[in-house]
Amino acid sequence: MRRIMFTYFTSDPSSRALCSPMLLSTFSHFSLFHMAANMYVLWSFSSSIVSLLGCEQFFAVYLSAGVISTFVSYVAKMATGRFEPSLGASGAIMTVLAAVCTKMPEAKLAIIFLPMFTFTAGNALKAIIAFDTAGLALGWRLFDHAAHLGGALFGMWYVTYGHELIWKNREPLVKAWHEMRTKNTGKGGGGRSN
Question: Which enzyme class, named as a word (predicted)?
């Protein structure tokens, strides 16, 4: 595992293929129940996160969150010597949950099996972070606590600072991409140029 982590940071062409698992893990689950639970949480918070960020920004944040939470999981597992699979799906879902709970801390939430007990989104986020911090510190193997924490912290950071720093400043990057694409299609002769 240490060798694999090292190759992520080298310029060796064969190591580029090792980065794709971090992206693909965004869609990976341990079991059918794990996938069902994640999809339920995503469905529950999807309208809120899309209304906050819009479809395109949500998609970019979700994919980034999967990669970031998988990376945090890899680092934690290397530090503790536990070499188990790291799946970024739960971390990406935690990013969505944390982003919504950060932007709407007074929203009322309930657990599907206990709908009579309601709590605020801010308190739910604090409880989840405390649970995953304890799980990481005590070595619990119930969930990938490092991926959850990485996703939650990324979600909180993104809606607080990242939107302003990244998404609102994307125009120069988009223009550069468009110019590069236009030059490349013009050289091929068969492409159209705008």
Answer: hydrolase
At which residue do the structure tokens 């982003």 appear?
99
Strands (E) across 7-113 are located at 108-111
Catalytic residue among 25, 48, 69, 90: 90
Residue range 157-170, pLDDT digits in tens: 999 998 888 877 87
**Is 25 marked active-site?**
no
pTM higher than the cut 0.85 = no
Kindly give the residue spans of alpha helices, DSSP state H, lying in 81-170.
89-103, 121-138, 145-157, 163-165
Q: Which two tokens stand for residue 148?
A: 């959850």
Q: Which pair of tokens denotes residue 63?
A: 């994919």
Among 148, 163, 178, 193, the active-site one is 148
> Residue holding tokens 């090792």?
18
The full set of domains in the chain, from first to last, is 1-182 (1.20.1540)
Q: Using CA atoms, how far apart are residues 167 and 58, in angstroms rounded to an integer?
A: 11
User: For 89-131, how does the pLDDT look when each residue is reduced to its tens digit (9 = 90+)?
Assistant: 888 999 999 999 999 999 998 887 777 889 999 999 999 999 9
Q: Which amino acid is at 46?
A: S
